[in-house]
């Protein structure tokens, strides 16, 4: 009876280990290391004498560190590529993701020191895009839309050089809009 009970326990332990290993593999495959670590830690608590469980825990921890490191490097690479391409909005977006996901990393420290510059450049880029759209609207004689966009630039980027220029040009642009409305 004792032998059968020991065999049943051993079989249950082996099944538990196999099931947890399978589940852990699935979780790691989709990058859910938090769940994988939780499942393996529960297994280690249930089977503290199991070398397989301890080995699985060490493996999951090692793969989680490698995965995290790769994710950080990938985000940092996106930031660098965006900066090289002078795509400041994309650089800010990637930097914010990195800072949120990995705030204590060395990459976050480097990016944190550059965030103000990235944000400033993104704002300049945003103003430039809007200014170019205003010019396009004026060339196409869509003055009312140009006025709306000019007011948006003045409102959202009040300290920019573009806003300063637009404040001077806005009365003439509004006059053109009103005159074009009379011609229609």
Can you walk through the features of this model?
- The protein has seven helices and no strands.
- It is mainly alpha-helical.
- Helix 1 (2-29) packs antiparallel against helix 2 (33-46).
Layout of helices and strands:
Blueprint: H1 2-29, H2 33-46, H3 51-84, H4 88-101, H5 106-139, H6 143-156, H7 161-183
Characterize this entry briefly.
With 184 residues, this protein is mainly alpha-helical. It has helices at residues 2-29, 33-46, 51-84, 88-101, 106-139, 143-156, 161-183. It is 88% helix and 0% strand.
Features:
about 90% helix, single chain, about 180 residues, rod-shaped, mainly alpha
Separation, N- and C-terminal Cα atoms? 100 Å
How much is the average pLDDT? 91
Number of helices: 7
Fraction in helix: over 70%
What's the β-strand tally? 0
Q: What kind of oligomer do you see?
A: single chain
Q: Element order, helices and strands? A: HHHHHHH
Poorly predicted ranges (pLDDT <50, ≥5 residues)? none
Our Rg estimate from Cα atoms comes to: 30 Å
Overall, the morphology is rod-shaped
Coarse structural class: mainly alpha
Percent in strands? under 5%
**Sheet with the most strands, sense and barrel status:** none
């Amino acid at each position: 009876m004792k032998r059968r009970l020991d065999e049943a326990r051993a079989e249950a332990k082996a099944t538990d280990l196999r099931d947890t290993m399978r589940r852990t593999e699935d979780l790691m495959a989709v990058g859910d290391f938090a769940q994988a670590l939780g499942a393996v830690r529960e297994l280690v608590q249930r089977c503290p004498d199991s070398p397989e469980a301890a080995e699985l825990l060490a493996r999951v921890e090692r793969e989680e560190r490698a995965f995290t490191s790769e994710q950080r490097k990938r985000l940092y690479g996106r930031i660098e590529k965006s900066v090289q391409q002078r795509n400041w909005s994309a650089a800010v977006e990637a930097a914010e993701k990195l800072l949120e996901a990995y705030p204590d990393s060395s990459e976050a420290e480097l990016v944190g020191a550059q965030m103000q510059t990235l944000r400033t450049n993104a704002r300049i880029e945003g103003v430039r895009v809007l200014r170019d759209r205003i010019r396009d609207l004026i060339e196409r004689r869509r003055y009312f839309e140009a006025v709306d966009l000019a007011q948006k630039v003045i409102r959202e980027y009040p300290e920019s050089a573009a806003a300063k220029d637009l404040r001077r040009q806005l009365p003439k642009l509004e006059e053109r809009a009103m005159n074009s409305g009379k011609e229609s």
